[in-house]
Design a protein that fits this description.
Strand content: 25-35%
CATH superfamily: ABC-type transport auxiliary lipoprotein component
Low-confidence stretches: 2-8
Number of strands: 8
CATH topology: Rossmann fold
Number of domains: 1
Shape: elongated
Structural class: alpha/beta
Largest sheet: 8 strands, mixed
CATH architecture: 3-Layer(aba) Sandwich
Distance between the termini: 109 Å
CATH class: Alpha Beta
Length: 209
Amino acid sequence: MSRRRHFVSQSSLIAIAAIVAGCSMLSPRPDRTRFYLLTAASAQTRIASPAAMVLGLGPIELPGYLDQAQIVTRVAPNRIDLSPTDRWAETLDANVRDVVAHELVSRLPNAHIVNFPWYPTVRISYRIEIKFDRFERAGANSTELAARWTIRDGRSDQILMTRDARFAEAAANDSMESAAAALSSDLGDLADQIAAAIVQLNQSQASGG
């Protein structure tokens, strides 16, 4: 009789342990997903643009492998890693476009930006196209931007200037916050190039060159 009681007691303990383990497996796990945004700098050196102008921004093209919410890190020339927890808070192409637009306006205070596509009735002074080849973390502590930008005449659509741009920014540390800040700084460097080119073109056209 005592042996039977011992068997029943042991079976009960096993059943209780299984129930507890099952509840533990089914209980909700904490969501460790974190969301990030690129941001424009709060203050930039302004370039004296001589007259009001309308800049058409776009199209802006990013590589297909960046068209996803997961943040990409290049760990080798032919290998990338996708973060299991770090995400962009909005689509990367929209975030890049907004930051570049803000950075250009901060440098060209007389400029008004319209995003591609715009209505045919909008009179564009210059059209800016940007095609990115790289825009990602390069390892844990740096970032890389590689792009080709083109400025076209807003009326004739003639190409006025095309340049290749490449920037690498050292992140403050290996955190994703620092990576997002470094990528934002890369976009600021890109805006510096484009804004200077627009002023140069505008001055050349004003002098009849």
